[in-house]
Give the backbone structure.
Amino acid sequence: MTQKKDATFHPKIYYFRQSKNIFIITGSANLTGGGLYKNFEVSVLLETGQGSPIDMEFKSIINNYSENSTQIFGELQLNQYEREYKTYHKKHKRADKEFKEEIWSIHKFDISQINKFVKEYIIDNGFQGFNKRKENYKKAKKLLNKITKEKIISPSDFLKYYEVIAKSFHSSGLLRGKREMANKYKSILSLIKIIQQNIRSEPIVVFSKALPLVKSIERFGVNGLTEIMNTYNPNKFSVANGRTLKSLSDLGFTKFPSANNFNHKIYEEYNKLISDIAIACKFKDLGQVDHFLSWYYENHVKTKQI
């Protein structure tokens, strides 16, 4: 039998003999009240005869363990073992506490609380509103595909398409800065093409490739980038904007920085959270999480600010 350094002995074998009958129990249960009565354990009972192949194999295993174990005798060794155990337990307890603190620092959500608002969202025709949103995003996608194929040679040419696209996203922010953004139309077209060419890539990859361009375009921001990403792959890319971030914070999540301060790692973490919410709430895609959080902002966050 191969021995591993620093390995812990964990299997349990109970070997009983009655005349020539052998009873072997092997499994997870310790010979304690918890192991035998309280815990959920798995063990197997083998019944065989003395000298059978199974009997001989288990005798060999038991002998091997016995030869490679240290037997404790007397109070001195027991006390030493007890001190070692208490030291280990103290260290383990501290590590366990630190682990729990770290786990609780990760974004968690109370699904029962969110489900309460999801029910309210459904009663308020949330799914019908989301279906309308999907239609608008389909139109936006067609225009985004068209704008990258057309011969755009001036900011005014660009704005003819851009205004309709921004209205499809219902983004007042993207409309307010349209003149400044139009001056960077070449960069925006390059950004759209990056997303088109990477719709199957991981979110962190697309975000990383597009972010330098976003930073070079005045007033465009991460909101514009993630709206377009979500338009092309709503199952994989989430939208990040002020409304969604304020809603998440109001629902009790750890606060994210503003969307325009996202880097690729923060977006990856944010995208994972939005994906988890989509699964937990049985939403159709990540776009519906954005629609729900926008609805929550209008109906719960905004009313508190008035």
User: Anything to note?
Assistant: The beta strands are 12-18, 21-27, 43-49. The chain has two domains: 12-67, 111-305. The longest helix spans residues 74-105. Residues 111-305 form one domain.
